[in-house]
Amino acid sequence: MRHLFCPLGANHYGIRKRRGSQLLAAQSPETGQHEDLQTRLRNAGPWFHNLRIHGVETAPDHFLGDYPYVKWRYLSEALPADLAGKSVLDIGCNAGYYSIELKRRNAARVLGIDTEELYLNQARIVRDELGLDIEYQHCSAYDVLSIPGQFDVVLFMGLFYHLRYPLYALDRVVQKIKPGGTLVFQTLYRPHTDEGAAKPVEPDYPFWEQEIFTDPTFPQMRFFEHRFSGDETNWWVPNRPAIEAMLRSAGLRIDAHPEEETWLCTPVAVERRGKYLQQLEFEGKLW
Predict the structure, then answer these.
(1) What is the pTM of this model?
(2) What is the pLDDT of residue 191?
(3) How far is CA 148 from CA 13, 49, 177, 214, in A?
(4) Residue 25 within any structural domain of the chain
């Protein structure tokens, strides 16, 4: 799944020169091995995730700085330090940065999925170099229900706005979270202002209502017919109130907001009358 664009520049985080990735091996290889590894990683590019493999960085000149560490440095503090016995599904895993970090927290099973073979190949190279037990497979967010079982932690990061049918995907993704489990959701949004969370939304509005459509705090999502930031897969740009409204509408409780574009959620109302919301919608029986 494509991760060609990320909304916030490195200066936003103030760490363009900082290199904080924890994906380091204990020892650096000998000179000859180091050069071979550099060649292998370069040939596997281009890379969107900056990983450090035996001292070799995969994307040292990333326009966002040390990405995705710039997000992980905040998210890491919001997730359990020990995931022993837990399962993780990383949707749109790219080169596997988050999959690796959660496996290093002792997760019993980590499965990363993506539709881009370039990224899956990168993820497998890194996994094998680091000697970690992580599964990777070709699968889209739309097809997650083909994966057996549910997971304790589901990551749905940097993908929502790339999807032509984002709510369809979100309603499928929530079905993969175990009861009491966690969804880590991250997306681009605009504008980055002090609008904060949405105001309380009325249960209904009259047909002739006009004011809410010009209110920047009201949930809204803009559609790009062609491209945004040079990427034709950037279909949508929601505002923060819309993101939080859609998460609640999907039956999720927002528990934390550890990073500007990241939310931690728990499924609390993803079913009605014994069926998932999406099933009821498809049957015309949601309401």
Answers:
(1) 0.88
(2) 86
(3) 38, 28, 12, 44
(4) no
141-176 per-position pLDDT tens digit = 999 999 999 999 999 999 999 999 999 999 999 999
Q: What is the pLDDT of residues 206-233, one digit of tens each?
A: 999 999 998 888 999 999 999 999 999 9
Burial 268-279 (b: 16+ CB within 10 A, else e): eebbeeeebbbb
Place of tokens 């309603």: 171
Helix or strand run (H / E) with residue 263: strand 262-267
Structural domain for 126, as ranges: 68-282
The whole-angstrom separation of Cα 152 and Cα 29 is 36
177 band by pLDDT with thresholds 50, 70 and 90: very high
Q: Whole-angstrom Cα distance, residue 32 to residue 35?
A: 5
Phi, psi at 63, each rounded to 5°: -65, -15
Question: Per the domain annotation, does 42 fall within a domain?
Answer: no
The total domain count for the chain is 1
Give pLDDT, residue 116.
96
Beta strand 109-114 pairing with 87-91: parallel
Task: Please give the C-alpha separations between residue 234 and each of 34, 95, 164, in angstroms, as whole numbers.
Answer: 37, 20, 9
